[in-house]
Amino acid sequence: MLTHLYTPLMLCHIGTSLSSLKKARMSSLASDMDIAGLPSDILVEVTANIATRSSTPLSDIVSLRQSCKVFRDATSARKVGRCMAVHREWRLHWWDKTRFLSVLRRCAASGNPEASYILGLEEFCNRRRKAIGLRHLRRAMEDGHAAAAYMIGMIILHDSCSRRGIEQVLERLEGLSASASTGHPRTRRRIAAVRREAASVMRRLTMRRWRKLEPPTPCTNPWCGEMEAETVEAWDADEDEERRFCSRMCRWKHEYSKFIEKI
């Protein structure tokens, strides 16, 4: 493995230069620079860098793939699919949804958490295949995708008010929620950012709106959900308010209401 000889800046420069070349020039470049002589791991690293950083990753990877055999092999590497910036290909969702979903499935199979996240919401919201959708979302969550973990919690609350399911997900959300109850500003801002990200993807994928949550047994604590103080750094960033709740369950029921207002 020779990738340690190349700094990230060098790989980025190589990738940017290659992605800016026209297909017609790529074959000439392969001949002139003897790209076939480069180690395969370097070629994969450069290609993955393009897939990550390009503003048009799919078209750039397709151009590389069609340029010569060495890049055809490099673009087939699992790492390239894992690094593909699929969130920059939303226009394909409107122009050619079949191809968009095909790209998502290939990238998800390579371990791309963003692809698994979008595919999971597509399966759940539009195809009504809840089990498959949750499987994709859990895969993304296990790879550290915060919005996927958030959406699993929202889906569980959408389907029922059961404490059992949401508590299991909250164990995965400790990085987001553990300090939220203590009022940590950075955590509150992060939760609000994840909410906006999740709502944005939902609005892109479907026009369907969710029902408001009406628990069969409302919280009996009269202080639960009361606003404590006005602050620009509140956990409830959209309203600049900070509320206190008697439990994590009540706090996440409130978060569910905030979420459906966004979609």
Give a description of the structure:
This protein is mainly α and 263 residues long. 65% of the residues lie in helices and 3% in strands. It has 15 helices and two strands. Strands 1-2 form a two-stranded antiparallel sheet. The chain is elongated and about 75 Å long. The protein starts with 7 loop residues before the first helix and ends with a helix.
Summarize the structure.
The protein is mainly alpha-helical. It is 65% helix and 3% strand. The protein has 15 helices and 2 strands.
Please describe the topology of this protein:
Elements: H1 8-19, H2 23-33, H3 40-53, H4 57-67, H5 69-75, H6 78-83, H7 90-95, H8 97-109, H9 113-125, H10 130-142, H11 146-159, H12 163-172, H13 174-177, H14 185-205, E1 226-230, E2 241-244, H15 248-262
Antiparallel strand pairs: 1-2
Helix pairs in contact: 1-3, 2-4, 3-4, 3-5, 4-5, 8-9, 9-10, 10-11, 11-12, 11-14, 11-15, 14-15
